[in-house]
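name: query_chain
kind: protein
chains: 1
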Amino acid sequence: MILTFGNVCTYVNYIWQFTQMSYISDEWQVARRRKGVSSLKPPGDSDTENQLEKAPEETLMCVCYGLGSFSSCVAARYQLAMLLLLLDARQILLRDCYVYDPAFSFAEKNVLRELGLTVLTENEEGKRLATKPTLFYLMHCGKALYNNLLWKNWSIQGLSQVLIIGNSFNGIKERTIERELKRDYSYISKAVDLCEERLLPCPSHQIDVFGDTAVITFPSESLNRLTQSFWTEPPEPQYLDCSDLEITLRESSPSETLLTGDS
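structure:
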């Protein structure tokens, strides 16, 4: 997949204007009614399809974690704009794009719903099983979120359904002490040798927004060459010794607290 960011700025302006609106204009209402397909294409953006890879035969679904507060953060608006471009280029139904971030305000959740996206109400901590081909859009998320996602899909069948646009695993490996990576983020450590990464080109002035971003896939030939024992009963990550955990954990219910003995 080859992506460029030439049209992102236009989308950013649209998102910002839309976020500030107290009502939804006819243009946005029409976009939402078009069978849930992203059609939020600003004027002069007719070449977007030529810049992004065409949609595959089987429609993808999309999950976006960790987008951030786009009403107050410029980088988050750029990343949301890129997400809308991807949905448009891949012809992913808007309602089939699931978004979650504990940082979302009530107003931001409403904006995302008005755009046609599905806002998740539960903190999944990245532990979502891909039951069909799924694009996970995880821009500059913490290592634990990637690690949890890999754990939940740790099988030949599971990883073959996963496509990630997010931080380069090789980049994570280079920036993390080896013993800590293997101890705290063992699934990322193992995935480095299983995945195929294609770094996305990024203009120098957008390094803080899109730097170190890669398209990550798991080729079947890499997965199938491993023995069955490699995949057997993968333990759920615990992060007991992790001092810099970059994830918001979901709150335990009273019944869960009693079962685990936590106080």
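note: Residues 74-90 form the longest helix (17 residues).
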